[in-house]
Design goal:
The chain is of the alpha/beta class. It folds into two domains: about 130 residues, Beta Barrel (OB fold (Dihydrolipoamide Acetyltransferase, E2P)), CATH 2.40.50.140; about 45 residues, no CATH class. It is built from nine helices and six strands; from the N terminus they run H-E-H-H-E-E-E-H-E-E-H-H-H-H-H. The radius of gyration is 31 Å and the shape is elongated.
Length: about 250
């Protein structure tokens, strides 16, 4: 008699354990199914974004690129390129970097300068410092529908070498914080950018090094000796000190 209740007790617990295992297995299966569905949705969303970016890059491809020699030598009768069409659209009114002031905020300008530095913040944001006759301005390239700047344009700007000749069309804005590293206190929101002449990746003389004082060199910073500067005078003349000398000479009446 004592064994019968035990058998009945054991027989009743087995289905409960089995049911619990089945429910856990079903829960794991359902969770795996939901995870698979979530990943599929993420992949589809990423594909849609990629397709959208590709479409934007294709539609905005006319807003950047290298200027070909054929375009530079072109005449009114020759076939126009994207750079010529952009420049003519501005009425060929070039603005000197020195003339970029707060009174011009909101206006669209066309400038040309040498690329001094480029700071790559992300695939959608980059900062350029353009230099012209010793004057510098910061240009900001932001990927968006409004600016008509694509991800591929950011990539294009990133691969440009220092001292390259670059034409930029953009809108003058006044930044919230003072701009460091430039002489002008306004920025250019880039709309179009074209490389007229891409400099060599490795130059025999870096302007920043040639511009350093003896004190900076003694402090351990990279500099340039006199022979190197004289042998590469065309680059040495781009330093702020040499540019200042020529500006003073240009104002002196003999």
């Amino acid at each position: 008699m004592s064994s019968e209740p035990e058998l009945m007790s054991s027989s009743t617990t087995v289905p409960e354990e089995s049911g619990e295992k089945i429910s856990k297995k079903a829960a794991k299966k359902e969770a795996a199914k939901l995870e698979k569905l979530r990943r599929k949705m993420e992949q589809e969303e990423a594909a849609r974004k990629t397709a959208s970016l590709s479409l934007d890059d294709e539609s905005f491809s006319e807003n950047y690129g290298d200027v070909t020699l054929t375009e530079l030598k072109s005449t009114a009768d020759s076939k126009a390129g994207k750079w010529i069409e952009a420049v003519e659209g501005m009425g060929k009114k070039w603005t000197d970097v020195r003339d970029l002031v707060e009174e011009m905020v909101g206006s669209e300008v066309l400038i040309r300068g040498r690329l001094e530095t480029y700071r790559h913040k992300s695939s959608k944001l980059g900062f350029l410092i353009l230099r012209q006759s010793g004057f510098k301005v910061q240009c900001v390239a932001t990927q968006s529908e409004e600016t008509k700047v694509s991800v591929n344009m950011i990539k294009f700007l990133k691969q440009l070498s220092s001292e390259s000749f670059v034409d930029v069309i953009g809108v003058v804005v006044l930044p919230k914080d003072p701009v460091t590293g430039s002489t002008q206190q306004v920025e250019i929101q880039v709309r179009k950018a074209y490389c007229v002449n891409n400099a060599l990746p490795q130059l025999p003389l870096i302007v920043e090094n040639a511009a350093r004082s003896e004190a900076d060199v003694k402090a351990g910073k990279a500099g340039a000796d006199q022979d190197t500067r004289l042998n590469n005078r065309v680059i040495d003349l781009r330093t702020p000190a040499n540019q200042a000398i020529f500006r003073i000479q240009g104002q002196v009446q003999i």
